[in-house]
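Customer escalation, tier 2.

The customer says the design service returned an amino acid string that "doesn't look like it belongs to this structure." They asked us to rerun it and document both sides in this ticket. The original structure tokens are below, unchanged.
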């Protein structure tokens, strides 16, 4: 309903509300001008909207030195932005109006450049490669990734393909055509990877990721501990029932199938099994360390193998002692460890020659001392260079080679898991990643300088020793390095 007030009076009322929004002002104006509060609030909203439309949002002028492709690619990679997010950010912060089609075209062109750059990667020395699949939303398909273990450099990453030996074989052949020489490979033991590596490089140089074995052992240990906890949770009810029976009272609820002493005996037995499996898994963990000392003696791969087989024999003896529901879990753990044992000890066999040479040159006591110090390098070091400064000068040449071998030992495929953590946020935004987008991520990652940690100040390319004329990933793709 229209009010009889004039336009000037309404403007005066609205301006007071906008300029002085004090408590009670709306009520005061309502009584003075015979206007309802709802009407005043409606006028205030109309006036506020009109002011916003009249004044508008200030437009940020675009810098002349700013490259639109550089801004698009930086937002895409650095902030995990979607195409619409890039569009709105450029409009609000830089005053750049750009269509989604233009953004897609920029990304497509940059992706092609990145793929061309990936094809030109060269390795001057043989490398240790971590292989793994990252499953996509497409059933049975995954992204295949090949990462340098020591530097983290991405050598190959491909869009979703069938997870089978043929797909991995083609990818490994592609790397061989680029001149990539594999010193060794490491994976979680997937069947497709095993088949491809056996055909291209040979199983004798393929390391089984020990952390995946530790994960399986931890899962079994967790199931044993939960079973003990579930059995212990039944004790209070059985105790209350036993107290009622001792007092001559009638038991409540459904009669229990076991008595209190029987349940306590079961818990004791289950706890014994859980503690035994936990101790054996702990021994397995220590025997698969890079350096293992026993009674002041450095263990070789053969000695480790014997110790681990003894641990697995003891694990088999624990199986009959467990309750039937958990026997299969322990048996499965023992079987997986036995199947993976030969490949899990590849790193130890590769260290044998270096350790034997050091034993002949320095003697067992000196090597044992170096091993003791290396195990405690986090306190004494933390780097090998720091340790070398604390030992006699006539040891340093041989000790340097030995410490370097221990540092370069490959037991796990953690490098490829780190790459998965980089890809995962982009998968969450875009749902699926093309070959061009994966190549863009790889180029960005290979040029990225580590801000902290052991590799602070170095990029994966620098850690690998690969010659790269450009230190910035956008410059390597032909975009403005200044704007980046």
């Amino acid at each position: 309903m229209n009010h009889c007030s004039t336009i000037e009076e309404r403007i005066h009322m609205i301006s007071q509300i906008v300029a002085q929004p004090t408590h009670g002002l709306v009520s005061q104006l309502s009584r003075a001008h015979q206007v309802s509060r709802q009407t005043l609030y409606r006028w205030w909203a109309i006036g506020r909207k009109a002011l916003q439309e009249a004044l508008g949002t200030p437009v940020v002028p675009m810098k002349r030195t700013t490259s639109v492709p550089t801004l698009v690619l930086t937002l895409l990679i650095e902030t995990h932005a979607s195409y619409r997010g890039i569009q709105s950010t450029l409009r609000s912060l830089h005053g750049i109006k750009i269509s989604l089609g233009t953004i897609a075209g920029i990304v497509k062109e940059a992706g092609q450049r990145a793929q061309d750059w990936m094809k030109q990667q060269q390795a001057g020395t043989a490398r240790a490669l971590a292989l793994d699949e990252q499953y996509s939303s497409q059933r049975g398909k995954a992204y295949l990734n090949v990462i340098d273990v020591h530097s983290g450099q991405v050598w190959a990453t491909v869009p979703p393909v069938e997870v089978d030996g043929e797909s991995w074989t083609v990818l490994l052949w592609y790397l061989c055509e680029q001149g990539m020489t594999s010193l060794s490979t490491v994976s979680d033991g997937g069947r497709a990877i095993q088949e491809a590596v056996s055909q291209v490089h040979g199983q004798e140089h393929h390391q089984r990721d020990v952390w995946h074995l530790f994960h399986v052992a931890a899962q079994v240990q967790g199931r044993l501990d939960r079973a003990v906890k579930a059995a212990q949770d039944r004790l209070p009810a059985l105790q209350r029932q036993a107290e009622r029976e001792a007092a001559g009272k009638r038991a409540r609820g459904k009669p229990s199938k076991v008595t209190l002493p029987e349940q306590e005996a079961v818990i004791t037995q289950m706890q014994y099994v859980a503690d035994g499996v936990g101790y054996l898994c702990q021994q397995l963990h220590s025997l698969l360390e890079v350096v293992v000392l026993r009674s002041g003696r450095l263990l070789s791969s053969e000695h480790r193998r014997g110790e681990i087989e003894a641990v697995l024999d003891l694990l088999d003896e624990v199986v009959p002692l467990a309750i039937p529901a958990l026997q299969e879990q322990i048996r499965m753990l023992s079987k997986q460890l036995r199947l993976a044992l030969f490949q899990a000890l590849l790193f130890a066999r590769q260290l044998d020659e270096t350790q034997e040479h050091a034993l002949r040159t320095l003697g067992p006591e000196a090597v044992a001392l170096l091993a003791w110090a290396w195990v405690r390098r986090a306190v004494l070091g933390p780097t090998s260079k720091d340790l070398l400064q604390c030992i006699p000068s006539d040891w340093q040449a041989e000790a340097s080679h030995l410490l370097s071998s221990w540092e370069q030992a490959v037991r796990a495929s953690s490098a490829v898991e780190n790459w998965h953590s980089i890809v995962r946020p982009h998968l969450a935004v875009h749902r699926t990643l093309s070959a061009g987008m994966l190549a863009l991520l790889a180029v960005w990652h290979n040029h990225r300088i580590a801000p902290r940690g052991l590799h602070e100040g170095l990029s994966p390319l620098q850690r690998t020793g690969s010659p790269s004329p450009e230190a910035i990933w956008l410059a390597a793709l032909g975009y403005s390095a200044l704007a980046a």
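Tier 2 assessment: The sequence is consistent with the input. The chain has a mean pLDDT of 86. The longest strand covers residues 127-135. Sent an explanation to the customer and offered a walkthrough call.
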